[in-house]
């Protein structure tokens, strides 16, 4: 279904996907390192500084003007965490030159621009430009603060912090607000050199491209010394199952946020992964799920109710927005839906509908270069390789017994409730 060719050029894994499906060619650069408190904020800042200027285009304005000249090419950066890994992404999209009246070598220019962003950034005296660093520090503070202002995202973050205390996964990919001020242009440049020397590096090229031409371009522009291979750290938590933690936090909010965290004890690497996806789809992942129908629709207890998986860490998170007075009722109904899954209390129709939605969702994701890269990158983060056609076939073959087996492994870990300043009916106090 997807013809991905992977070749190592020094320490860079080059993934070439030749396809005429898109009218653009896309280059995606990914850098992966362990999540760690001492580096998370530096990494959160670094890609934004890199995209703010190169030696030839030393300002955001000059760089954006050049992108416009490349027939409206786009440049984006992003930060995510997958399991206990912190991943920086730089993506450039350019028009396929075959569709242009002039045969401008856009792909060559895009490779050169990416190489310049990475290896020839705008510098001042052998360090990053202080004005650029300070400007991006202000923007980073705003991104971190935005999570505190968006109570749905805030509750998600707080659940993870409480659930994963002492584990790297508790860290936000956007870094720590208290660490932003201490970052200097010199210190960030030193970290940039370290990241280039130590990170796992992957380059994806998707579009109407020939593998030989891609490899030639990479060898010319992305020459890096080899580095020792790192031992892969497991992303699966080894936290022993203890008492369920309950955390109630009070703020000046009208709508309560009830978020519940479970350990699935299944990850992308495990044979039960497809069954776990099916479990999540029936339980809370989609609009036909038990949480949506029973908590939101039938009981009218929630403004929203859904669940999502963290595939590389082995976590399941339930998110719901409720009236504070409905805390106990909502918890009870959510618990009932989990027990129903463990009991196999779901229909063949729910199974068939969930398989169809998972299949359609996967195919829709593959319809964009960005989505395609995100699906393929699971195989870099994990030691288990799952070709896309195997993913679809594996989902189709999941049985009721498989789903119940996956459900049986799910263990309640932490309940987090963000509520208003007034006391709840049972008089519980907050943090």
Automatic annotation (TrEMBL):
Residues of the Peptidase M16 C-terminal domain: 183-356
UniProt xrefs under Pfam families: Peptidase_M16_C
Gene Ontology annotations of biological process type: proteolysis
The keyword Protease is assigned to this record: yes
UniProt cross-references to InterPro entries, sorted A to Z: Metalloenz_LuxS/M16, MPP/UQCRC_Complex, Peptidase_M16_C
SUPFAM superfamilies: LuxS/MPP-like metallohydrolase
UniProt keyword terms in alphabetical order: Hydrolase, Metalloprotease, Protease
Top-level division of the source organism's lineage: Bacteria
A molecular-function term among this protein's GO annotations: metallopeptidase activity
PANTHER family: INACTIVE METALLOPROTEASE YMFF-RELATED (PTHR11851:SF186), METALLOPROTEASE (PTHR11851)
Full protein name: Inactive metalloprotease ymfF
Origin species: Geobacillus kaustophilus GBlys
């Amino acid at each position: 279904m997807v013809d991905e060719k992977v070749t190592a050029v020094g320490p860079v894994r080059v993934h070439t996907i030749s396809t005429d499906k898109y009218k653009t060619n896309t280059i995606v650069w990914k850098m992966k390192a362990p999540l760690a408190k001492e580096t998370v904020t530096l990494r959160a800042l670094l890609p934004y500084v890199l995209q703010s200027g190169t030696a030839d285009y030393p300002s955001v304005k000059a760089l954006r003007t050049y992108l416009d000249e490349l027939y409206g090419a786009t440049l984006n950066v992003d930060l995510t965490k997958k399991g206990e890994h912190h991943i920086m992404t730089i993506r450039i999209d350019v028009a396929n030159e075959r569709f242009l009246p002039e045969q401008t070598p856009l792909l060559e220019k895009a490779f050169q621009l990416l190489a310049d962003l990475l290896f020839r950034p705008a510098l001042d005296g052998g360090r990053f430009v202080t004005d650029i660093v300070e400007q991006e520090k202000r923007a980073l503070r705003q991104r971190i603060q935005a999570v505190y202002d968006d109570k749905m995202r805030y509750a998600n973050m707080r659940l993870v912090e409480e659930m994963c205390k002492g584990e790297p996964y508790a860290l936000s990919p956007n870094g720590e607000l208290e660490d932003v001020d201490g970052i200097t242009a010199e210190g960030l440049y030193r970290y940039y050199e370290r990241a280039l020397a130590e990170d796992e590096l992957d380059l994806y090229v998707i579009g109407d491209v020939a593998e030989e031409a891609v490899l030639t371009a990479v060898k010319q522009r992305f020459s890096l010394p080899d580095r020792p291979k790192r031992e892969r750290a497991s992303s699966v938590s080894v936290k022993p199952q203890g008492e369920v933690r309950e955390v109630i936090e009070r703020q000046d909010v009208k709508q309560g946020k009830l978020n519940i965290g479970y350990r699935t004890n299944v990850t992308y690497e495990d044979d039960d992964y497809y069954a776990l996806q099916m479990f999540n789809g029936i339980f809370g992942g989609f609009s036909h799920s038990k949480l949506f129908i029973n908590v939101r629709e039938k009981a009218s207890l929630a403004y929203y109710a859904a669940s999502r998986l963290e595939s590389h860490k082995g976590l399941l998170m339930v998110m719901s927005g409720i009236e504070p007075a409905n805390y106990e009722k909502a918890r009870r109904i959510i618990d009932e839906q989990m027990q129903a899954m463990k009991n196999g209390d779901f229909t063949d129709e729910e199974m068939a509908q969930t398989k169809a939605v998972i299949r359609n969702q996967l195919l829709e994701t593959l319809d964009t270069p960005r989505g395609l890269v995100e699906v393929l990158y699971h195989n870099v983060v994990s030691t288990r390789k799952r070709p896309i056609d195997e993913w679809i076939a594996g989902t189709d073959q999941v049985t009721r017994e498989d789903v119940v087996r996956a459900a049986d492994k799910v263990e309640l870990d932490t309940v987090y409730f963000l509520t208003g300043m007034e006391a709840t009916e049972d008089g519980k106090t907050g943090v």
